[in-house]
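Let's do one together. I've listed all components of the complex below, 735 residues spread over two lines.
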Amino acid sequence: MTPEPAPGPPPGPRLPLFDTAEFGGRLGEALRRSGLPVTPERTVCFLRSLRLAPPVDRAALYWTARLAFVTDRELIAPFERVFEAVFGGLGGVPAERGDRTAGPPGAEEEQVRAPAPGARTAPGRAPAGAGPVRAPAPRAGEDADGPAGTLPTLGSTAEVVAHKDFSALEAAELAALDRLMELIALRTPLRRTRRRDADPHGPRVDPRRTLRAIRTTGLEPVRLARSRHRLRRRPLVLLCDVSGSMEPYARAYLRLFPRAAAVGVSAEVFVFATRLTRLTPVLRHSGRYGVDAALRRVGAAASDWSGGTRIGHALAEFNDRFGRRGMARGAVVVIFSDGWEGEDPGAVGREAARLRRLAHRVVWVNPRKAAPGYLPLAGGMAAALPHCDEFVSGHSFAALTEVAEAIGKGSGGRGIGRGIGRRGEKGSGRGRGRG
Amino acid sequence: MSTFTQERVPDPAGLRRALDERGYLADPGLVTALFLALRLPQPLLLEGEAGVGKTEAAKALADVLGGPLVRLQCYDGLDAAEALYEWNHARQLLGIRLAESRGERLAEADLFTEEYLLRRPVLTALTHPGPEPAVLLIDEIDRADDDFEAFLLEVLAESAVTIPEVGTIRAVVPPVVVLTSNRTRDLHDALKRRCLYHWIDYPDPERLVRIVRRRVPGTSAELAEAISAAVRRLRTLEIQKAPGIAESIDWLAALALLGVRRLDAEAAGATLGALLKYREDQELARERGLEWLVGSGRDA
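Okay, and this is what the predicted structure of the assembly comes out as:
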């Protein structure tokens, strides 16, 4: 397929004042600086689109550019900011872009989900690697006490750090924590998929492979090829409370995210204080170094950073926008929160119940549980507890291993065969998952 | 690109009119997206809330082009044998037996020709003879495993499928590929790279009125407007599944079937099930009041 030359004489204005290629390149560059993953390929696509659909007005140009450069819903907001900055004076708001006002709850927080630091900070100090898909540079502090300097004392530091409450960790100890985290593997339980793998002792005959084998033995069915269902790890969803009281813990908990990917579990990570923010794209590309940068960015975006927590609201948002569409279905969902609901404890219970109907298992991690004499009396916590399969503390690294265990429960250890046997559990009243 | 599509769809405005004639009201963004997908040509990835008309867009496009719509519904565990092609083993076996009984010698290569291929949706779309292109709708790609996306890359980029025993089968008339996703997981960058991306927003009230009236012919403007307003009110509530276009159309159809001319609380209450599919949502709406929902006392 080769691109067609522009059909006939171009109808209408064609941005004749300057070189189209240069124009496209510059727009692409401006977008890239704002964090959109613009490649030369996308720019070429944009130029070809301009030829096919000449931008007769600003709305047409908007759509041509957006279709060429935007590759994800999260990128629409940063794109619009750049577009506004570049073409703001050209008149005429892009018409008919749908109903923004009456959207589902949460539609308005686009700004938080796709922060474009380029647009927030002064243009002079455009941050390196800004944007939702780039890896933020490692913090200067982490460079200062690099591995070389701390390695000799790792043994003793590690032991201290492992049992220290996360809220008491100092900056230097966080680096040690990073290394300890490498020891954790978040393995979710196994589940059966539709695909089948060859297995000589499998329960079912595989006709396709049997026939293929038969052809080589002169049509005599010498041996039946068998297969069994392929097993997969269930997906994992981490929902992390980052309100003021939880902040020191959140830094540690978010470091768990790469530990799921490390063992091939597909994981999603969200943070919430008063609203929900999806961090998966940021953390996937930046790993543990991105945690602090991501937290700072979320903190800057959430106006009431250390204000009240709306757990119920955040859970509802997760259920509505992600969970129900499939992200939570069959998944292990872990909520890291102290259960201090600022608004409506009833909502926490309601949404936790919904979440439990969607998810395979719900694990609640509450660092306050470790305190002597703790009772789950905080309104939100009490309401949510009946709907959780596991309730663990996870206040220190040592306690995090409990969290990893709680997540893996139901997988029947490493044995694949046992993984299948557990499948019936969920159907039969879920068995409360404490097997 | 064939001159066929060039003539049938000369510019975005022409495509918009053609879609309009076939009962699909597309906003300028979607029209541009479909137009570019057709003419660049490049696969189009559509995302949006459930019920905003992603699948309908592909159907309407196929209708405009006059070609077949080949649909591949994705699910967890979908593999190449069900999406691209599979060898017809039974027929191969029969072929061998037949050759034996006739005393013919059969070379291995004779058994792996196109006549022994079972065409699954993707291959069907690729081998469509034309002249009008087929529309290949790969629905809810996010439901398939992530490794399934790799199977699609060749189809998306080259309009071709490589079958080891046969070679590469290239499309006579490249199909227009439309992928839809509900965003239950992120798609691979390699897939996105090959696609145009369009996010379909929920339509504004005036547009909703026009859409539902188009889809349920013979309804009064008054009723359609009342429904659009009610749906808009509902979407301000914190309900689990906000009604989409599809539900609005169902609701209007239900009301029309009951012979309702003017939306009142009683009629709304009787037909609420067409609009809200969760018990909790229905309770919430009733709590807020059906009078409020239908805007009794003539809303402004």
